[in-house]
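User: Here's a protein and a ligand (inosinic acid). What would the complex look like?
Assistant: Let me lay out the input and then the predicted complex.
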Amino acid sequence: MRPENMSNDIAEILMTEEQIKETVARLGKQISEDYAGKQLVLVSVLKGSVVFMADLMRAITIPCPIDFMVVSSYGSGTESSGVVKIIKDLDMDLRGVDLLIVEDILDTGRTLASLIEILKMRNPNSVKICTFLDKPDRRVSDITADYVGQKIPDAFAVGYGLDYDEIYRNLPYVGILKPSVYEK
Ligand code: IMP
Ligand code: MG
C-alpha cells in the first residue's frame, strides 16, 4: 500500500535540500575543473541516479553529453550478486571518451565492479566514478569512488532518487527509512 505521507516513514534526515545543493555544486565545480579539455561523458544506471544526474549535469560548466543504461543484477533478496545483465545498453560509442559513471549510492559495489569491467572493454580513454552517497562499511568489491557527495552509515536511505519498492524517489531530501516500513 502506498503511504499517505511519505515523510512520516522517515526516521531521520541525512541530507537536507540545502545540503544536497551545496554538495552537488561542489562536485560539479570539481568535475568541471578536472575534465577541462577532455571528452567528458556522464553515464548513469537507471533509475536511482536520475535525480542526481539531472542536478549534477547543470552544476557542470563544460560540455557533458549524457547517456543511460538499464541493468539487472541477479541476486537473492536485497543483496546484489554482481552478475550484471544489460537490459538497455548505451546509445553512445565510448572509444576515446572520458567516462564518468554517475551513481546514486555505492553500497557493496558489486553492481558497479562488474559494470566497469564491461565498459572498460569498449576502450574509453578513462573511467571514473561519481557517487552521491557512499556506504563504505558495506563494501564487498574492491571499488572506490573518485567523487563522493557524502559518506553515510549503514542504514537504508531513501529520497533524492533512492527508493524502497519504487516509493520515496521524489522526496527532495535524503532520509533513513523507518525499519517498521520494511519489516511489515
Ligand atoms: P551494490 O553497490 O551492488 O550493492 O548496489 C548498489 C545499488 O543498490 C544502488 O545503486 C541502489 O539502487 C541500491 N541501494 C543500495 N543501498 C541502498 C539504500 O540505502 N537505499 C536505496 N537503494 C539502495
Ligand atoms: Mg542504482
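Summary: Residues 165 and 182 are 9 Å apart (CA to CA).
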